[in-house]
Design goal:
single chain, mainly alpha, 0% strand
């Protein structure tokens, strides 16, 4: 039942990918409500999946890598639903949907949905720590997407090869402002997640702690460089892409370490 909800959600995100790609190939891209509604439907189905899985587990559904990846995809969609309309980044949906679809499809196809023989006791601090950290990852993912949009527009301006997508991209200054705000929101949420980790009432694996702090330091360094104006906007956009790739790799290490230290 719950996996069927996730499959339907993936179909919605697939629709949000196929239509813009077809329009771009035809050279007639026009942003509209379809993408936002398709992503909203996919997000609603993701939320239903997490609710059903959470009720069956009796806790926040973050007990294995499968659930972590689904929660991550949900976080990306959540941040887009909050940020896209506010910054009038209608085109961001065309970039967000492929990332969410990729994460979700990998979670569904890979053998990651392992179950625990013993029911894990709920720990509110641990669940808050994990959920806040993953929502922060959603903000980092949107910063990465905004970085891609920034670099695409910058390249088209320099090469003077303007495609139909160019005329629907926000100005570079607006994109950079969105990147900066997303980085601040992500770092703030991630800091909240890190601090709450010290109240879980149980020792955390040292490898998990190191990976978590590595992610924090990575994004703090980008924001510090931005604040001191040592990094040009184009460099910040590129670093957002590199940092999110590194953060995803470290997330795998964090999740693997947590599973190795969880009861069988």
């Amino acid at each position: 039942m719950d996996r069927q909800l996730l499959i339907l959600s993936s179909i919605c995100f697939l629709a949000a990918v196929v239509r813009p790609v077809a329009a771009l190939r035809a050279g007639s891209f026009r942003p509209g409500r379809f993408n936002f509604l398709a992503i909203a439907a996919g997000f609603a189905l993701q939320s239903a999946f997490l609710s059903v899985r959470g009720h069956s587990l009796g806790r926040c559904p973050l007990t294995n890598l499968f659930e972590v990846l689904v929660f991550l995809a949900w976080s990306v969609a959540l941040i887009y639903m909050l940020v896209g309309p506010v910054y009038r980044l209608s085109l961001m949906g065309a970039f967000t949907a492929p990332l969410v679809l990729l994460i979700q499809a990998f979670a569904l196809l890979a053998p990651l949905d392992t179950s625990h023989s013993a029911k894990l006791a709920a720990n509110s601090w641990l669940e808050f720590h994990a959920s806040m950290s993953l929502i922060a990852y959603g903000a980092f993912a949107l910063a990465c997407i905004a970085g891609v949009m920034y670099l695409v527009q910058d390249r088209q301006l320099k090469t003077r090869r303007l495609h139909s997508i160019f005329y629907h991209l926000p100005p570079l200054t607006d994109l950079f402002d969105a990147i900066t705000r997303l980085l601040w929101w992500g770092l703030g949420l991630y800091t909240l997640g890190l601090v709450s980790g010290f109240f879980v009432g149980q020792p955390l694996p040292w490898a998990q702690v190191l990976c978590a702090f590595a992610v924090w330091l990575l994004y703090a360094a980008i924001l510090q460089g931005r604040h001191l104006r040592r990094l040009a906007p184009k460099r910040v956009a590129a670093l957002c892409i590199v940092a999110f790739g590194a953060a995803l790799t470290l997330l795998w290490g964090i999740t693997f370490s947590a599973q190795m230290h969880s009861p069988p």
